[in-house]
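Trying the structure run again after the queue cleared.
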Amino acid sequence: MEQPLMVIGHKNPDTDSICSAIAYAHYKRHIAGVAALPYRAGTVNPQTSFVLECFGVPQPDLVTTLLPKLSDIMIQGPDLMVLTEDDPLGLAYQIITQRRFAFLPVTGTDGSYSGKISALRLASLLHDLGELGRKRDVSIHLHRFLADVDGSAAEAQVPAQFTGTIWLPGLTELPIAPQGPILAIVSDPSPDRIAHTVAHGASVLVVCNSTHIEVKAGIPVITTRRTPLEAAVALCLAMPVREFVERDHPTFPPDAFVRDVQREIRKSNEGGFIVVDADSRVRGVVTRLSFLNQWRFRVALVDHNESSQSVDGIEEANVEEIIDHHRLGHRGTDLPITFINRVVGCTCTIIAELFRFSGQQPPREIAGLMLAAILSDTVILKSPTTTALDQEMAEWLASIAGVGIAEFGAKMFAAGCAAEGMDPRKIIEQDLKMYEESGWKLTVSQMETVGFDLFRNIQAPLAAELDRARQDAGCHLGCLMVTDITSSTSLLLCAGEEKLIHAVTYPKVGENLFEMAGVLSRKKQMMPYLADLLRHIPA
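Done. Tokens:
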């Protein structure tokens, strides 16, 4: 079955990133007929949580990396065959030879991992057969043996399990003072041979080349038409797998990255490896063939196109589609992809128009999410990024969702602006994006408020967290854009190299703090300004 398309927004997601992932995955499933699932690449912020709860839509599952793990490529589920230590060796031999497996995992009676039995180990069974009569405490599944030789049971009841010494009169010597029971294989069903064998202590008798015996042996007797050699082979294959388990070889956890395991297996001659979880349970098997297939996640990116903003491991994924409304970053693809990039205020504006073009109306909850995203990105249609299409789609979606644009937008922003008591680190990281321009690297975060009083109360810890986030990302400049939605004004808090901060031309209103009257959009106003600023500063 083909793996589903993963629809993912950027790291530190905002409302558009989450809602566009959900809406586009719904569009792909129900309109385009493509298996698709939405995901998020970070923690949902308060505004988005309000929106999801308002329309009764659960958060998408979190994905932190697109690097394939062993759990993505391993043989598992109904395709995984696992033996127990008590299973007969013949079962392992049958599966390995018929299916051409190199090995099979083996567990103990409690279900915990024990080791593996390999085709290489089975190849040495001739040696085990030759040693059969010399061993003590040989265990045999007698009922399995009885079935394998098409035998009949006579005299006393044949026990399910035998543990003792194997004796082939005429072929192997009876050990001196054998310890425990003796299973004897004879090819002569004559009364004298039977009596002689029983007299020497046989506890179970296998009579070959025969279907019955004429005398009472007084012990369990199995008769078979098979030859003594065939019976000896069948006895060997009826031994428990336990005696043949290889226990000293590498295993790996399910969450190990494929690329890391590949480095390890190059050091080994093993044909395959067993995947074992922290509770010693077998979860899967990987063979060398598993690593030859270039397994990659199928991904559609929404609300971004720059790798620096994507979930970790994006370079190992197959990016098949991009739906965005931002500037183009520097990325290439191996194959042609669907790329829709429109000069609109919100990614969900593009997705809403795709719904309308299809002639099908989105469900109320999907319409509500797309409306919320448009209102969030355009600051209730006040941002200079707002286009006629944003306005048109917002009105269409509001009619489907059954909400008023102004009222719902006010409630949504009020929920998102309730930052009092929030950890300053979360405020910086919840909507942080990374950019690179003219050799300079920078982070830009944005928080929306009703007035600036709350910001001024936590300005110092915000400045400290902004600088920490900048350094952690290896950037030269860190910026926090604090937008008052009631006055259409933003404050710009900066951290980083002094020559970059000193180059800012907006009015300075505090330490590393600047006032940007009329600036609401990070995408259309803030980033073009910073990009132009950095182009004129030698790196």
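Residues 447 and 482 are 5 Å apart (CA to CA). Worth checking whether this holds up in the mutant runs.
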